[in-house]
Amino acid sequence: MSKTRIGVVGCAGRMGRMLIAEIAGSGDCIVAGGVEAPSSPNIGRDLGELAGIEPLGLAVGGDRAALFAASDVVIDFTVPAASVAHASLAAERGCALVIGTTGLDTAQAAALQAAAKRTPIVWAPNMSLGVTLMTDLVEHLARRLDAEFDIEILEMHHRHKIDAPSGTALALGQAAAAGRGIALDGVAQRTRDGQTGPRRSGDIGFATLRGGDVVGEHTVIFAAEGERVEISHRATSRRVFARGALRAARWVVGKPPALYDMKDVLALR
Ligand code: NAD
Q1: Cα–Cα distance measured from residue 257 to residue 119, given in angstroms and rounded to the nearest whole number
Q2: Which CATH number applies to 129-235: 3.30.360.10, 3.30.1360.110, 3.30.470.10, 3.40.50.300?
Q3: Which residue out of 14, 39, 78 has the highest number of ligand 1 atoms within 8 Å of its CB and is therefore the one to mutate?
């Protein structure tokens, strides 16, 4: 069987470098190429050297159309505007796409939906098996624990992260809201400061910590009078996300056009 050709956009980023190493070491997939933002100082560098592995004889490029043409599937961990542009390029080329980028606004999410009418796209704010299962557990608990239980979501990430709350925290909030049969938008309490007054019953609260090199930590707390349930996930290596993205890439090639997430990839629906 021929190997799956995987292109990486944002290949010099924290996740991009991890992805190059993971694909190169996979055995059943090959690195089709890597593209960076036009202003990146890494354009021209060898992809393997950049990823801390042996040279691959492929240079970081800037031509995304050529990358999409040379790939069975492209993986994108970049920034929201770039991911939207890559989704429409994937749709034009009929190339499958895996997006891990977080922080997209409603219009940007709608643009992904539109592109996914023409090509299969997996988009998930967290590609780890642990968080995907945790999301299911949170929905289940929110369905079973009544409104006596206040739901609070705490997350911590490294100092470089540019969006807050994290895409994963918001997805956990969506899952909790779905368990309660309500929309998150109406109950999300994303910041608290000053004279807030008492907690509004039914709210889902978020607290964001940033610092150091923390890969990603999430805790969902269900707090009632006299007892508390907490579910936590701690990622200690970005490798879990890279491995999940690779799993999604293998899975999505040849699927019908639609917007999928990790629950589809892991057959949890
Ligand atoms: P990073 O800043 O280290 O890397 C992003 C890279 O994208 C940079 O190298 C940047 O130059 C590049 N880039 C920006 N615009 C581009 C363009 N137009 N074309 C090509 N490349 C472009 O960030 P990171 O820590 O790797 O995270 C990237 C995104 O992935 C963030 O949104 C983060 O929240 C998300 N993330 C998701 C998961 C998950 O499991 N889904 C896990 C980790 C990070």
Answers
A1: 4
A2: 3.30.360.10
A3: 78
